[in-house]
Write a structure and sequence with these properties.
13 strands; about 300 residues; alpha/beta; five-stranded mixed beta sheet; four-stranded mixed beta sheet
Length: about 300
């Protein structure tokens, strides 16, 4: 028999005053209660209880043994409580992958708040526009922009990722402000290969879909931050994420062009491996991300 269980049953017999009451407390039969007490007495080679037809009382050894049992059972309960608390406390390390622009503007700041809130956590944020393999590359979590092709991953959909057109005030002063998508044909448009829009921008507006062909460009950049700098320098009109451009828009370095027209928002998802243990640290970070970035609601 389990020794700790026998000790707990024995203490209950003394506190409840009978085998029957102790049996009800533990959800077992009175016969099983007697077996637990007998097992203890056999192991200790001494009598723990005086039994009569009218009452039960502990022997001197039984009384002293019960005191020790109470302390031991209390310590066991405390130890289990500590273990449960540790299991619920974010402790350990997270390795997270994110696209460069989104990771720089959104994820890095969230991680700073997360690590300040959970001082026993460590994190590594790897920025890159290459699609990582969570298992082979050793990541716990990854942010994905665009439709998911790895349907075996556990996905946490976030608010969609919005794209927008922007240009520097100096560029618009020289070349004029486009009033319709058709006007973009007369402007210098800077391509961004990452969006798969090297040849055509597909813009959705109140009057439907517009396809804007991109003329051959003297400059193509595959990095959002660099593309933003080129636009701010007055080179042309860019199609970029609102996340990347929001600081320059607020500072007046860039202006929102054709605000009623934009591509369809792109899905934004936080993914993880399905059979990997969901630690308290991972769960806390996912909860923070969903709270800060939404769950398929307001667009970013």
């Amino acid at each position: 028999m389990d020794r700790l269980t026998s000790m707990a049953v024995f203490v209950s017999v003394l506190e409840q005053g009978s085998f029957t009451a102790a049996a009800e407390l533990h959800g077992i039969s009175a016969t099983m209660v007697a077996k637990h007490v007998n097992a203890l007495e056999a192991r200790l080679r001494t009598r723990l209880l005086h039994r009569t037809t009218r009452r039960l009382s502990p022997t001197d050894t039984g009384r002293r043994f019960a005191e020790r049992c109470r302390r031991l059972l209390s310590d066991v309960a405390a130890a289990e409580g500590v273990a449960a608390e540790i299991a619920e406390t974010p402790v350990g390390r997270l390795r997270i992958a994110a696209p460069v622009a989104f990771g720089t503007v959104r994820v890095a700041a969230l991680l700073a708040i997360y690590l300040d809130r959970y001082p026993e956590m460590q994190a590594e944020l790897v920025l890159g526009d290459r699609k990582v393999d969570l298992i082979d590359d050793g990541f716990d979590l990854a942010f994905r922009i665009g439709a998911l092709t790895d349907d075996w991953l556990v996905a946490h959909p976030l608010a969609p990722y919005r794209l927008m057109l922007a240009a520097a005030p100096a560029y618009l002063a020289r070349h004029g402000y486009p009033m319709t998508p058709a006007d973009l044909r007369e402007h210098r448009l800077i391509g961004f290969p990452q969006w798969g829009a090297d040849e055509t921008w597909i813009l959705i507006g109140p009057d439907g879909e517009h396809r804007v062909p991109l003329p051959p460009s003297r400059l193509r950049i595959d990095h959002g931050a660099a593309l933003r700098e080129v636009a701010a320098a007055g080179f042309g009109i860019v199609l970029q994420s609102s996340v990347t451009l929001e600081g320059d828009l607020a500072a007046g370095r860039l202006c929102h062009v054709l605000p009623d027209y934009a591509p369809e928002p792109r899905p934004l998802t936080l993914v993880r491996v399905p059979d990997r243990h969901m630690t308290a640290g991972m769960r806390a970070f996912i909860d923070m991300v969903e709270s800060a970035l939404g769950r398929e609601k307001a667009e970013l």
